[in-house]
Write a structure and sequence with these properties.
There is one protein chain. By secondary structure, the protein is mostly helical. Helices cover about 75% and strands about 0% of the residues. Helix 1 crosses helix 2 and helix 5 packs parallel to helix 7. The protein is elongated.
């Protein structure tokens, strides 16, 4: 399943990129990709960010150490198309952060924290927010 997500997201990304370079809007590109693959636009929106994951993070998904939910949260909350190199490093850092969590409940909450704080949050800020949420339980 995970390897399929990586392949599909990469293929969706190729279609979107092709039409975007031809001058289509992102919305138009998503519509074209959805029709091409006979899937919903929402599915395209869900898969597209996954194509931005660095190979190391995709491998973590493929080998089962990183959950799909966490990888999606990392991709959606971290990728900045204006700075792909910085985004790539931030995604690797966030994946390592998720993997470093010992507590099962913290791991479950990590995706929400990533989504809530967004791409500008440091690992320290993510950890602080996660602790706050744990204390609220």
């Amino acid at each position: 399943m995970i390897a399929r997500v990586t392949v599909v997201s990469g293929t969706v990304n190729k279609v979107i990129t092709k039409y975007y370079k031809e001058g289509k809007t992102l919305t138009e590109c998503r519509d074209i990709a959805a029709k091409f693959f006979a899937i919903s636009v929402q599915t395209v929106i869900n898969y597209h960010p996954m194509a931005s994951l660095p190979q190391e993070v995709s491998q973590m998904m493929d080998d089962g150490s990183l959950k799909l939910q966490d990888a999606k949260a990392i991709a959606k909350s971290t990728f900045d198309p204006s700075n792909p190199q910085q985004s790539e490093q931030a995604m690797k850092d966030r994946a390592e952060w998720v993997l470093s969590l010992d507590d099962r409940d913290e791991k479950k909450e990590a995706a929400h924290v990533l989504e809530d704080l967004g791409p500008k949050a440091s690992i320290e800020e993510l950890s602080t927010e996660l602790k706050k949420k744990a204390n609220q339980r």
